[in-house]
Every structure is written in structure tokens, then in C-alpha cells.
Design goal:
Chain lengths: 635, 177
């Protein structure tokens, strides 16, 4: 079937009853919420009642494809996956690349809403209009790679797309992931455990249809021009050459490299973890793109001396080599590749896994926990073999250590006590990505208000560093003056964060990778809106686009308010707010409670949220046309 | 007549699928890999991506197999193409092509293959990685493959060819210093 971009179609699957249902999202809703992450946020708000058990049948796993995913728009293949997080008990959106979203759209579906709980392990098979719930007992227990290969073989189609959980998701590890298109992790917040709680091992998708945009020629010409402009961008060049870990040498030099559970900001030898090192020494053997992307930041790597085991697999991202490398005091390329492969195969988030282990390492070295608590494992910084073993035990919840860390750092610190929350690198229950928020005030604010917890993939204000002409131009557009492209300033941070929230939301609703709109800048609100206009065949401007992003952010905030989240939850990990940067060019810097309070006041005020609670006011909801949807939680 | 073909360098392909989208949009006016004349196969185990398209073989089995003379060769440029009005979508050519480069799109009554867009292939213009070029050279990759795909269905055939090319790329990679 060749379809237009809108209206869009929802496939609802109730795994308790084994029933499916088809619904339609009218074009006016696609315009209002932009589709993708926007419509998915609305569906999550409507369909998961307040107070639901994240691992119970009432939670929904929602997959939202981008409104431009499957078209030739550059880097537009990203898919949003939503649920209530079992790690935080709050709103969770995870964005994933690869080819799953495009395949779903070609199969005729824009959203999947999966609820209920199957009595037996099953997988969901989608082949265009043919949707079947099939037994998966024979796949239960398998690693993600193994299950992916088996499904392709069974269904006789080596090009089908999959979303698969590994043993970690089956065993309810609270930071388990869903691996999509084999290489791409939807990883944060325990979304894999939600899939596992429903006894859903995998989703397979085969699509043979297509998408027709309304104004074909102008759409194609603009998309093609954007693709080539993006490929020339300096940020893109670095991402192609070295991947995300190409920033390691710079981070180390600037004293911004998270090391040894954030107790250090540089680490000798950290360049071993960099994309440059992986390229120069022959670890890198291939580059992979997500659907329709002209950057190809994803890596394919091999091990060389196989010291910790053989690796021939997709490569580690920056956050992975930091969390499982420098944060654990390990600067060993081979170890990082093995740790990455283990997390992918077992189906776990590398950021949370790394920070749970680095918390345990610090606890061990401070003698807050002992080898009795670790079942004999010498969890000291720098012990690579112990990291690999801990990952395996976590995935299978094996022994005291595996079970303790599988629940995430917040719960582990609560159980161990003895002040260990001070070095638990988490807020709202989510382990912070290995980004130091003490010297960058936009980052600090964005991380604190992030509905899923402190990390860089809901809103990252990279432009505030002003590292390129384009970045400074973005800051000028937002604030009126380039001088605000300075991460140490607290002025104008609320404006900068809000602009990035809107752009992140809009990008992800349309399917664009945020790297192309907020790290490189070839994709911007103007050309995104133009593409939407050509795609829908109706006037659509930048203001509507940004408003769509704002609606998403507001619905997400309302979801959390309904779950009881308040201003006090908008915070950063204890160490980030109470211990100053220990060394380097940023020595002494901090974003403490008083400074954060100032930033929050500006931010809530700007949004029209009650500064006492952080909840959107009724008049704010009315202005955004969200009163009907979210009015019950208004502050 | 000198057969010409796309110059496909699989080692540079990242599987972004821009070529498939460019092809289907140019030929059909919509975006659908199922209608594309070029198909990228991802050989995950080796991390190699292999674009597959018609190479306009000097001795084209599809042409010989067609019962209705719908497949013709341009004797000047050597390009093989399908005359839509004569094609009955019988599938003989799909079966005859050893590479899986000819196919009948879903719900269509017409076989399709790459005709090089009359000399300016849209896929080449879309590829920012340099994996696809058009240098008006005969194919140098497929002709030297020794795989047998006779009797396989289309996905299997493409997969077998992709694996063979990927193995070769993998070996070249291993030989790198």
C-alpha cells in the first residue's frame, strides 16, 4: 500500500487477550502534535493511568515512528519508544535509530501500542497488514543477536527488521534495553524490562508498501540539498571519521572527562577509548548509518589481541566507553569493546550499567561494601575482568551483587545506606550520562528538568559552548546576542534550554536525529517546517513546529505531575550539586542548590508553570490547547 | 556494444538506503524500497553492506529467458532495459537473474531493473559515501563471483550474493595492515 504522510495509523495490541485493534490519527492531530514522539506522548498520557505498576499489564509500550521517517528527508529514521519507566516510576521516552521505524511505516503502521501481559513468551510478527502473536518459548533466554538471527532464519527473510530483548529484559533488570535493527539500542530507563514483563521477546517487521508526500518534487529537492549540506558539516565529518567517541581527547584536555565515578575530570591514557585511537589502530572496520542518514556515526569494530574475548560487532558510543571505561577507571580499548558487546547481547543500557558498577566500585574502595556483598568479586577501579563479570551477573540477577545492581543505583544506595547516595550518580532514579553538568549551566538546567532523569538525550544545549560559527548563530537567534554562548553564564539559560526542548521534541516527532539539528545544524526549524509543509501539502511554519515541540514537553511534564513528581525532583545527582570540580580549567565550579533554584525559577516562569510545584498552570495548558488532555493535573 | 554498470564499492556503503529512496522516488514518484531497482543487503555478521543492482551482463540471462521479448539491450550503450508494454510479469527473468537484480514490485504486473536513469543515475547522486559511482565501466565484481543461486527465491538469492561480496570485503579488510 502506498500511503500519504497523514492521516496515520495505530496498531494496538493487547497481549492479555491476544487481540489487535486499528485506529486512525487524523491529520489535524499530526499537525498539532507533529506525530512520532508527540502523538506517542499523548497516547501514553491517555492510556497509562496514574499510579500504574510499570511492570504490570496496565503499562503500555508505545512505538512512534517519525512523521517524515521513510521519506528521503536526511537522518529522519529515528523512532521514539515510550512507557512508564520501571527505573524512575516516571515518563520515559527512548529514541532509537536503525531501520525499524521506516520498515514499520512501509508495513502500513505509524504507531504500536502494546499493553497487557502474555501468559507465555511470545513475539509479535508484523508483515504489512498481517499481524500475528506467535509463540517464543524457544527464543526465551537467547541473547539479542542470537534471537535476531533465529527470527530472520525462521521467517525466511534476511532483511526483516527486529526489536528484541535479551536476558536482562526477561529477568527484569531495571535498566534493560531493547535492541533494534540488531545494532541500535533503545536503552534508557528500563524499557526492555517493560517488554520483558509482557513476556514479549521480540517484534519483527516486514513492510512492502511506501509513502507518498504531497508535493514530491520540492520535497525531494529540499531533502537532497539538506542531505548534501549535512554531509559537508564539520560536526558530521568528525562523527563520520571517529564516531561519538571522537570527542574524548578534547574532553580530557578541557577537564570534562568523567572518570572514576565522577571523582575525577581527567584520566591518563583515556585517548585509548577514543574514536581516533580505534581508527588509527585498526579496531574500526566499518561505519553504519541509520535509515536515510548522511552521517554514519555508528561503528563496526573488531578486537585485535582478544585479551578479554573476541569482538566483531557494532562499536561502542562515547557514553559507553565513558561509563564502562573511564568511570570504572579503565582505559583499555579491548575491555571497552567487550563490555559493549556484553551489554548489547544481554540487552542492557551501558550508561546505567556502568554507573551502577562505578558506584559499587567506589563503595567497595570506601569499604562500605565488602567481598561478602560482591560474592567475592574484587570491585576496584581499574579491574576490567570484574566489570565484565558484574555485567553478566546483573543480567541474570545472579548472587547478591547481581541482584543489588540490577535494580539501579538509587535502590542499591538506599539498600546499602551509609551515605552511599552521595556517590550514586543518579537523579529521579536515572543514572546521569557521563556529562559533567557543574561548569555548563544550560546542561545543568536541562538535565535537572529532564522528565526521564538527568541525561543528554532529551535536551542537550551543546550550542551554549559556542564552538562553531553555527552554534554561536543559534545562541544569537535564541537570546539576541552571541555573548551568551558561554556555558558558565546563568543568564538566558532558561531561554536556551526551552529552545532546545522545542527543537528536540520537533526533531524526534518528525524522525530527525538530534545530532543533525543541535550538534550539527544543517537541519533546523525552518527547513524542518518546510519539509512538513511539502509532505502534507498544507502551509506549515516554524512557529507551528516549535509549538508542537512545546506541547510534547508539557504533556511529559503533566505525566510526571500525575505520578507525584514536583519541583524537588528537578535536581541533579548529589555529587554534581555538592562537590566542586576537583581539578583542571574548571576547578572549583559547581551548580549548587541555590544556583539551580535560580535557574528553575526562570525556567518555570518562562514555561508558565507554577514555581512552587513545577506543574503547568491551567492557563498555560489552555494556551497550548492541552486543557482537555491534561487539565486534571493543572497546578 | 560495451556493457556499462554502476561501480559499486560495498566497503564504503553504510546502508543508509538513500539510493533505494532516490530510485523509487525517481521511477515511481513515491518512497518505497520495495519498488527500488537497487537493493542494499546488510550482512550484519561481517559489518558489510552490499548494494545489489543490474550490472547489464554481456551475456544477460534475463534477456534470453524472456518469452515476450520485453527485455532489450541498447546496442550503443549496452544497457539492458524492460519494455513495459511487452512485459507480462511472468517472472522468468526474476528466476533467470543470478544476482536478484530483477524483480516484480508488490501488487505490480511489471518486472523492473536498473536502467541507469538514461546515464544520470539518481542513486549515484544521492550517495554521499562514494559507494556508488557511474564510470561507464563494465561490472568487475559480480562477474568474478562463483556463487550458485539457481532455484533460490529472490531474498535468498540476494542474500547469497551479498554474503559472497561481503566475505570478499571482509578478507580485504583482514589483509589491511
Amino acid at each position: 500500500m502506498i500511503r500519504p504522510i497523514a492521516p496515520q495509523r495505530i496498531l494496538s495490541v493487547d497481549l492479555t487477550r491476544g487481540e489487535t485493534r486499528v485506529e486512525v490519527v487524523p491529520e489535524e492531530d499530526v499537525i498539532k502534535y507533529l506525530g512520532g514522539r508527540g502523538i506517542a506522548a499523548k497516547l501514553l498520557f491517555q492510556r497509562v493511568p496514574g499510579g500504574s505498576d510499570p511492570l504490570g499489564p496496565d503499562n503500555a509500550l508505545i512505538i512512534g515512528t517519525g512523521t517524515l521517517t521513510g521519506t528521503g528527508a536526511p537522518s529522519s529514521g529515528r523512532t521514539s519508544m515510550l512507557c512508564k519507566s520501571p527505573l524512575t516510576g516516571l515518563y520515559l521516552k527512548v529514541s532509537v535509530g536503525g531501520h525499524l521505524g521506516a520498515e514499520l511505516r512501509y508495513a502500513g503502521w505509524d504507531y504500536l501500542v502494546i499493553t497487557g501481559k502474555s501468559p507465555q513468551p511470545v513475539y509479535l510478527s508484523i508483515a504489512d497488514d498481517r499481524v500475528e502473536i506467535k509463540p517464543a518459548s524457544h527464543l526465551w533466554g537467547q541473547g539479542t543477536r542470537q534471537a535476531d538471527a533465529r527470527l530472520k532464519q525462521e521467517l525466511g527473510d534476511p532483511t526483516l527488521q527486529t526489536a528484541v530483548i535479551g536476558p536482562a529484559g526477561e529477568n527484569g533488570v531495571l535498566f534493560s534495553a531493547i535492541l533494534c535493527s540488531r545494532f541500535n539500542g533503545a536503552s534508557r530507563g528500563g524499557i526492555g524490562a517493560v517488554m520483558g514483563s509482557k513476556k514479549l521477546k521480540a517484534i519483527t517487521v516486514q513492510g512492502h508498501g511506501g509513502l507518498r508526500v504531497s508535493e514530491g518534487e520540492p520535497f525531494y529537492r529540499l531533502a537532497d540539498a539538506m542531505r548534501h549540506e549535512l554531509a559537508k558539516d564539520s560536526g558530521t565529518e568528525s562523527l563520520y571519521n571517529w564516531g561519538t567517541s571522537g570527542s574524548i581527547p578534547g574532553l580530557n584536555e578541557m577537564g570534562m572527562l568523567a572518570a572514576r565515578n565522577f571523582s575525577q575530570v581527567t584520566l591518563e591514557g583515556a585517548d585509548q577509548l577514543s574514536g581516533q585511537h580505534m581508527l588509527d589502530d585498526g579496531y574500526l572496520i566499518g561505519r553504519e548509518s541509520c535509515f536515510s542518514c548522511s552521517t554514519a556515526c555508528h561503528r563496526f569494530v573488531r578486537s585485535l589481541d582478544h585479551r578479554w574475548g573476541e569482538v566483531l560487532d557494532s562499536g561502542p558510543e562515547l557514553e559507553t566507553v565513558l561509563a564502562l571505561g573511564s568511570e570504572c577507571g579503565i582505559v583499555d580499548t579491548e575491555s571497552a569493546l567487550v563490555a559493549n558487546q556484553l551489554c548489547n547481547e544481554l540487552g542492557m543500557d551501558t550508561i546505567s550499567a556502568g554507573h551502577a558498577i562505578s558506584w559499587a566500585m567506589e563503595s567497595f574502595e570506601r569499604e562500605v561494601i565488602s567481598s561478602l556483598d560482591t560474592d567475592g568479586l574484587e570491585l576496584r577501579f581499574g579491574n576490567a575482568a570484574a566489570v565484565h563479570e558484574a555485567l553478566r551477573r546483573i543480567a541474570y540477577r545472579e548472587g547478591k551483587l547481581g541482584d543489588l545492581l540490577a535494580q539501579g543505583t538509587r535502590r542499591a544506595a538506599d539498600r546499602v545506606g551509609q551515605g552511599s547516595h552521595r556517590w550514586a550518580i543518579q537523579a529521579k532514579g536515572l543514572e546521569q550520562s557521563a556529562v559533567d553538568t557543574r561548569m555548563a549551566k544550560g546542561y545543568a538546567l536541562a538535565f535537572a528538568v529532564n522528565p526521564r532523569g538527568p541525561d543528554h538525550l532529551m535536551t542537550e544545549t551543546f550550542a551554549e559552548f559556542g564552538l562553531s560559527k553555527e552554534a554561536r548563530e543559534v545562541i544569537r537567534t535564541i537570546t539576541g546576542d552571541e555573548k551568551y554562548a558561554d556555558p558558565h553564564l546563568t543568564e538566558k539559560r532558561a531561554e536556551i534550554v526551552r529552545w532546545h526542548e522545542d527543537v528536540y521534541g520537533a526533531s524526534e516527532a518528525l524522525g530527525f536525529c538530534v545530532f543533525t539539528s543541535t550538534a550539527a545544524f544543517a537541519v533546523n526549524p525552518r527547513n524542518m517546517a518546510q519539509l512538513m509543509s511539502h509532505a502534507l501539502g498544507t502551509p506549515f511554519d516554524e512557529e507551528q513546529l516549535m509549538l508542537g515541540g512545546r506541547r510534547m514537553v508539557t504533556i511529559e511534564r503533566c505525566f510526571n505531575a500525575r505520578e507525584g513528581a514536583r519541583r524537588a525532583d528537578d535536581r541533579l545527582p548529589w555529587r554534581m550539586m555538592n562537590e566542586r570540580v576537583p581539578a583542571g580549567p574548571n576547578q572549583g565550579m559547581i551548580t549548587d542548590q541555590a544556583m539551580l533554584d535560580g535557574l528553575l525559577n526562570q525556567y518555570y516562569e518562562m514555561h508558565g508553570w507554577d514555581p512552587a510545584t513545577g506543574i503547568p498552570r491551567a492557563e498555560t495548558l489552555e494556551t497550548l490547547g492541552l486543557l482537555e488532555l491534561c487539565g486534571d493535573v493543572a497546578g | 556494444m560495451n556493457p556499462t554498470s554502476l561501480t559499486i564499492e560495498s566497503a564504503r556503503c553504510t546502508a543508509c538506503m538513500a539510493c533505494e529512496l532516490a530510485c523509487s522516488f525517481t521511477k515511481e514518484g513515491f518512497f518505497s524500497p520495495a519498488f527500488s531497482r537497487i537493493k542494499v543487503m546488510q550482512v550484519y555478521e561481517l559489518g558489510v553492506n552490499v548494494p545489489i543492482a543490474c550490472v547489464h551482463c554481456a551475456d544477460a540471462p534475463c534477456l534470453a529467458s524472456c518469452p515476450s521479448e520485453a527485455i532489450v539491450r541498447d546496442e550503443v550503450r549496452g544497457v539492458v532495459s524492460i519494455v513495459a508494454e511487452r512485459c507480462s510479469a511472468c517472472g522468468e527473468c526474476v528466476e533467470a537473474c543470478p544476482y536478484g537484480a530483477v524483480h516484480i514490485p508488490p501488487e505490480q504486473e511489471l518486472a523492473v531493473l536498473c536502467d541507469l536513469c538514461g546515464g544520470e543515475p539518481a542513486c549515484v547522486a544521492s550517495c554521499v559515501y562514494g559507494a556508488l559511482r557511474y564510470e561507464r565501466q563494465p561490472d568487475a565484481v559480480y562477474a568474478s563471483l562463483t556463487v550458485t543461486t539457481h532455484g533460490m527465491d529472490l531474498p535468498q538469492k540476494r542474500w547469497r550474493v551479498a554474503e559472497a561480496v561481503a566475505e570478499r570485503v571482509g578478507q580485504a579488510r583482514e589483509a589491511m595492515p
